[in-house]
Amino acid sequence: MKATFASDNTAGVSDEIMAALQRANTAAAAPYGDDEITAELTEVARGHFGEQAQIWPVFNGTGANVVALQAALPRWGAVICTENSHIATDEGAAPERVGSIKLLTRRCAEAKLTPGDIVACASSQGFVHAAQPLAVSITQSTESGTLYSTQEMAALAETAHHYGMIVHVDGARLANAAAALDVSLRELTYDVGVDVLSLGGTKNGALAAEAVVVLAPERLSGTDYIRKYSMQLASKHRFISAQLLELLRADLWHRNASHANRQARALGEGLSRIEGITLRGPTVVNAVFAEMPQHVFDGITTAYHCHRWDTSDAGHPVARLMCAWNTSDDDVEEFLAMARELA
Q1: What percent of the residues of the chain are helix, what percent strand, and what percent coil, each to the nearest 5?
Q2: Spans in the chain with pLDDT lower than 70
Q3: CB-CB contact of 200 with 207 (8 Å)
Q4: What is the pLDDT of residue 1?
């Protein structure tokens, strides 16, 4: 079966990233991040996130989240997140098992926290019998393909900071969000009050490259030590740094994300015109959520790996379809043709 729309994790690696890895492979270099490529990455990252930014490359998104949240919290701290956030549902309890972090999950419309959620959890601050809510983690874009506007993020950060909480963003698809909102990475993070970020690269054309970006070093410390004891420090560090550098140095991050978003919009628009298929909401990033009759879903899954995200009130499957940096027009049209034939 084809994995074309199963996940943006199924896509290959951008040619530019492969070339960057090849360039990094031409000479010996100091290990563990003491190399020239990592030094350049630090400078380029500061151009995107502010002169105060610290960037710590890691192997994967779960590692980035666990390292970032450990840096954000004391041992008695807890993090507020949505009940369907990646850290709560898809990371094998790594925050709890590896980071010893209590998750305070909230049921939220559109998979988005509100200032009210923060206020509700803050009521337990100072109560010795409760894990202390001292961080907020939001996902941008969300697991449901929705977006926080810059105004919504600023309001969340203002409320969180009022209660002394650190603001963390799970940015596995931050590039898609920034491209969709037509804002810079800085405007979507540092400028709205984010303190620490898990920056995604793998879903945007990299091989195995994510990073923890500390935007408020005066509020977090020890990230480098936490990265080491959390087993996220690479010895041949330059090969992770080279990928992130290639994404950030020019506009590859934006080009790849914009392409994925455009292809998802085309897929969503095509599906919405097929009788019996209904979109769960507008397609704003690279995720399409489509409710369809069972026989259509069954037919599609004979040819495609397709994730059943939910079941509608009518009992119909809701499919999640992801586009990536290399999803082609032919890929989209082939899928639509099959859906039209099945419907």
Answers
A1: 40, 15, 40
A2: none
A3: no
A4: 83
